Amino acid sequence: MEKHDIKVIGLDMDGTLLRDDKTISEYTESVLRKAMDQGIHILPATGRAKIGIPECVRKMDGVRYGICANGASVLDLETGEELYSCRIPYEDAIKMIDIMENYDTIYDAYIDGRGYADERFYHHLEDYKIEPEMMKMYVQTRTPIPSLREYVMEGRCKIEKFNMFFADPQKRLDVMEALHKLPFVKVTSSLYNNIEINAVDCNKGTALLGFAKKFGYGREQVMSCGDGSNDIEMISMSGIGVAMENGLDMMKEAADYITVSNEQDGVAKAIEHFCLK
Fold first, then answer.
1. How many CB atoms lie under 10 A from the CB of residue 220?
2. Which DSSP category does 220 fall into?
3. Where are the alpha helices (DSSP H) in 83-220?
4. Are the C-beta atoms of 21 and 113 separated by less than 8 Å?
5. What is the pLDDT of residues 109-145, one digit of tens each?
6. pTM for the full model?
7. How do beta strands 73-76 and 65-68 pair?
8. At residue 90, what are phi and psi to the nearest 5 degrees?
9. From CA 66, how far away is CA 32, in angstroms rounded?
10. Among residues 240, 243, 202, 242, which one has the least CA distance to residue 219?
11. Judging by beta carbons within 10 Å of its beta carbon (0-12, 13-18, 19+), is residue 200 exposed, middle or buried?
């Protein structure tokens, strides 16, 4: 396979770079280091807030920048400087909270790189069948507060992303269908039991290409890997879009290449295939 002049690689986290236990294999880490030694920018491109980027990724030498909250922000992970942002305006955020209150769900919001959730949700995660690894991350990355609505109103906060979690998979599908009709937000998902809500123009692809352009690279020098619906623009817009074998069918249809699963070091193998000299 002819190697490509890739200079920027955007990597989704859950179901893509991370194994199911939320770790990275030594093999994958070694491939990432080889890519960075060649001058390639490796960007975590995640639905998580900055605080939720795993330490094994965030502390890796050479991982300087990250795309957070599905493209709501591009950050310098060392300095905290924001290179790009696309948030839900305050007025629309209040509308969204009022809508979410109508459903049997728990919800939270990312604001300035951290998650905030009502105490009534934070202390009853088990009622919504959140898996142990996700529950651990949720507790570590969310701050419990009396009322998210009041917090947003008082601070007139712009929201990076809302998250919703459901105990009933069918209710999740019904709610997703209803929310898709709202004109002021973009609705995606990265887990079987969640819904993610961003500003209508927000996506990982625009953020990734914006980063590349800022550093003087064209679309053809950008590669990305993903598995979920919140990765679709990133895969479609990159010069080389890679879908994981464990990804959604829509991802595989949009991709230029399908690699093996996240449990089989699919990201590392794709990088070796296209990028490493």
1. 14
2. G
3. 90-100, 119-122, 132-141, 148-155, 169-179, 204-214
4. no
5. 999 999 999 999 988 888 887 888 888 888 999 999 9
6. 0.89
7. antiparallel
8. -55, -45
9. 15
10. 240
11. middle
